[in-house]
Write a structure and sequence with these properties.
By secondary structure, this protein is mainly β. The chain is 0% helix and 51% strand. The strands form two sheets. Strands 2, 4, 5, 6, 9, 10 and 11 form a seven-stranded mixed beta sheet that branches. The termini are far apart.
Length: 112
């Protein structure tokens, strides 16, 4: 079974940075894509960013150039570097890979 474990969430002030990491139990080069989703209270889970095995990255419109998704095949991890965070970014962030596998999520709270 594919296991995904997120880390790096926490409390950050508006405008600040935060880096999330996802550790996979598999060789991430064996799957077509990995990415990050998020879910805020009362809202649907939404795509944040996806990185493909071919090396392409796709981002949701709300990212607005602030986030970067990166794959580290040596460590089988996928990170999400988030900068210029807003209160609207407050959510539980989930690691995902194709085949509908999900991590348990890591909380990100953007607040003063």
């Amino acid at each position: 079974q594919v296991q995904l474990v997120e880390s790096g969430g926490g409390l950050v002030q508006p405008g600040g940075p935060l880096r999330l990491s996802c550790a996979a139990s598999i060789n991430i080069n064996s799957v077509n894509a990995m990415g990050w989703y998020r879910q805020a209270p009362g809202k649907r889970r939404e795509l944040v960013a996806v990185a493909t095995r071919a090396g392409r990255a796709n981002y949701a419109d709300f990212v607005e150039g602030r986030f970067t998704i990166s794959r580290n095949s040596a460590k089988n991890t996928v990170s999400l570097q988030m900068n210029s965070l807003k209160s609207a970014d407050t959510a539980v962030y989930y690691c995902w890979t194709c085949g509908e596998y999900w991590g348990q999520g890591t909380h990100v709270t953007v607040s003063s």
